[in-house]
Amino acid sequence: MKLWLREAVKTTRKHLVEFLQVSISRAKSEIDVLLPGYTHLQRAQPIRWSHWIMCHATALLRDLQRLDQVADRANEMTLGSGALAGNPFGVDRDFLKSLLAFDRVTANSMDATMDRDFVVDFLYWASMTMTHLSRWAEDLILYTTKEFGFVKLADAYSTGSSLMPQKKNADSLELIRGKAGSAFGKLSGFMMSYKGLPSTYNKDLQEDKIAMFDTYDSMCEILQIACGVLSTLTVNEGQCKAALSPDMLATDLAYYLVRKGVPFREAHSLSGKCVAAAEEKSVSLSSLTMQDLKGISDKFGDDVTSVWDFENSVEQYTSTGGTAKASVSQQIKHMETLLANSSNS
Known about the structure:
Elements: H1 2-29, E1 34-39, E2 42-48, H2 49-74, E3 76-77, H3 93-99, E4 104-105, H4 109-114, H5 117-144, E5 151-152, E6 159-160, E7 168-169, H6 171-195, H7 207-232, E8 234-235, H8 237-242, H9 250-259, H10 264-281, H11 290-296, H12 310-315, H13 325-344
Parallel strand pairs: 3-4
Antiparallel strand pairs: 1-2, 5-8, 6-7
């Protein structure tokens, strides 16, 4: 089982790296595209499309690192443990370990015959990876709807309705999202079998293969589909830009006041009053007059017009991990370095 898992990890890892490489490629080429960022599924602040891509790629990079840890922990040779007591014929386990390219031999023969931690590790890894892919898919499902219209899937990864000709359904993404639940079931199901066993081998442990093989097959399929979806989708830059609205710059208005020396708590309150004033007048936040703004705080000056620029907004987030162009480029470069180093190790 460990020999099989070692090869399975190599294949799965290759598919995951390919997805990350596609993510990097798209993040590089579409770094100038802006769109709304969301919290609570409500428009919050402007971000770069590339920042969104790297958000999910960062989570999946952790999954790649976690997969390497799974492979390392599983690379212990069980051979020579016997049924439970060990081997009485002086078998050189270290020699066998070298022949089979294991890093270590298991330390206790009783533990070795009952150990399926490496199975649980792989199933947990798959569950976490599918969780991240499911969240990625959910965002894209929303973005493909006419209510958002930010992206369009290639025909190869979407289907029409059996009844309504106008529909184009994101079936590939929905299946990724659905498969995540199946992975969780495999993990919890096997752990329920595993938890109550007495020491050493019991026949219940043969259930590990059903969970492992099915989860492995699903992971390979899902990662390849996800890679295909991301590499072929089309970004509607115009629709992304049109979805940006001045009310998303309310926080920027507070930042403006902070730069004028106003404590943030007070600035936040004053910005809220500006939002309320705009709502009361049924105008956009950027349409408030200087008189309106001065009536709320004398800190507002003619330079407040610089706030109503979405490019300026994203470019202020220059800290590590932020959505400014330089910050996103740094994230891309950092991931490229980590992938290069991991492939060489």
